[in-house]
């Protein structure tokens, strides 16, 4: 088996994601660690580091494994460190994620600015980025922040800006991924692998006109349209359908709806004929007539 690539080995191209490290300082909840592993894996990263976790076996706790939900490999590869300085070893640019404004320390930026700056830095093969998050209860200490080059904020609701640490990590990983995709040569939208769905092709004029005729029949059947007094209903309906450039699937869907409308109207008329009492007044006969004016 080929040994895994060390996260301390510079990578290029698609492996640019290997040069981004996520560091959790003093994590206390196994569930947050598992959620963090899942969060970074969904965004294409894999380098998770813990600093002095409250439980030395936090990576192997059942809650961590359960909430990793398919990202167990990230937990298996995660490393623990005694100090943040050790965890930041190879990093050339570290961002300290915090919700609080800091009067002293590195210059601040928001998470999108941090991602853009990281993309610029990672264009060079000798750079490494670290995203540092603090404890669930108190965040990062001032001493932790002094080890980083920038303070980074997520612009959340100022009246309630406290994010769960795994949620903050997910947002950071997303912003980093979005900024790095051009460097990695990856698309931002899912690839259809050139598969073509013929149902999405524009419907021909002939098919649209046949649908419109069918639609008219359905409107008459459900007594929405009085063919003796159509007024401007039909031209407006036709204009509504034709200006939207329907696909073949959409035409077929509308025609299926028309068939169901006509069938339902027929059943309703038959049922009314079976249950109608004799000696209907002229007013009731007019109400039941399919030719009544709408």
What is the overall number of helices?
Answer: 11
Name the CATH architecture of the largest domain.
3-Layer(aba) Sandwich
Q: What is the terminal-to-terminal distance? A: 76 Å
Number of strands: 7
**CA-based gyration radius:** 32 Å
Morphology: elongated
- Largest beta-sheet characterization: 7 strands, parallel
CATH superfamily of the largest domain: SPOUT methyltransferase, trefoil knot domain
Strand fraction equals 5-15%
Strand order of the largest sheet: 3-2-1-6-4-7-5
Q: Give the integer mean of the pLDDT values.
A: 86
Low-confidence stretches: 1-12, 278-294
The count of domains is 2
By secondary-structure content and strand pairing, the structural class works out as alpha/beta
Report on this model:
The protein is of the alpha/beta class and 294 residues long. The chain folds into two domains: 13-184, 3-Layer(aba) Sandwich (Alpha/beta knot), CATH 3.40.1280.10; 199-288, Orthogonal Bundle (Helicase, Ruva Protein, domain 3). The chain contains eleven helices and seven strands. The protein has helices at 30-42, 62-68, 72-77, 84-87, 111-122, 142-146, 165-184, 205-221, 233-242, 248-275, 282-288, and strands at residues 20-25, 47-51, 79-81, 93-97, 108-110, 129-133, 150-153. Helix 1 (30-42) runs parallel beside helix 7 (165-184) and helix 5 runs parallel beside helix 7 (165-184). The chain is elongated and about 85 Å long. 30% of the residues are buried.
């Amino acid at each position: 088996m080929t040994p895994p690539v060390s996260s301390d080995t510079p990578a290029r191209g698609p492996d640019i994601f290997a040069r981004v490290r996520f560091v959790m300082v003093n994590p206390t909840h196994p569930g947050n660690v598992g959620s963090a592993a899942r969060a970074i894996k969904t965004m294409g990263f894999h380098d998770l580091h813990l600093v002095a976790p409250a439980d030395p076996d936090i990576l192997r706790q059942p809650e961590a494994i359960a909430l990793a939900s398919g990202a167990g490999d990230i937990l298996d590869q995660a490393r623990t460190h005694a100090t943040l300085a050790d965890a930041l070893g190879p990093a050339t640019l570290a961002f300290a994620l915090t919700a609080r404004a800091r009067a002293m320390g590195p210059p601040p930026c928001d998470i999108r600015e941090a991602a853009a700056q990281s993309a610029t830095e990672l264009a060079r093969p000798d750079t490494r980025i670290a995203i540092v998050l603090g404890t669930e209860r108190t965040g990062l200490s001032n001493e932790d922040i002094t080890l980083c080059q920038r303070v980074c904020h997520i612009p959340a609701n100022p009246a309630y800006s406290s994010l769960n640490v795994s949620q903050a990590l997910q947002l950071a990983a997303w912003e980093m991924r979005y900024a790095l995709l051009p460097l990695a040569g990856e698309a931002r939208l899912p690839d259809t692998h050139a598969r073509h769905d013929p149902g999405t092709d524009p419907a021909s004029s002939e098919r649209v006109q046949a649908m419109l005729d069918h639609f008219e029949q359905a409107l008459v059947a459900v007594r929405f349209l009085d063919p003796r007094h159509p007024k401007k209903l039909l031209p407006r309906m036709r204009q509504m359908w034709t200006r939207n450039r329907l696909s073949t699937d959409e035409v077929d869907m509308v025609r299926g709806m028309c068939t169901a409308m006509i069938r339902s109207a027929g059943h309703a008329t038959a049922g009314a004929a079976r249950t109608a009492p004799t000696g209907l007044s002229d007013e009731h006969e007019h109400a039941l007539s399919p030719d009544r004016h709408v």
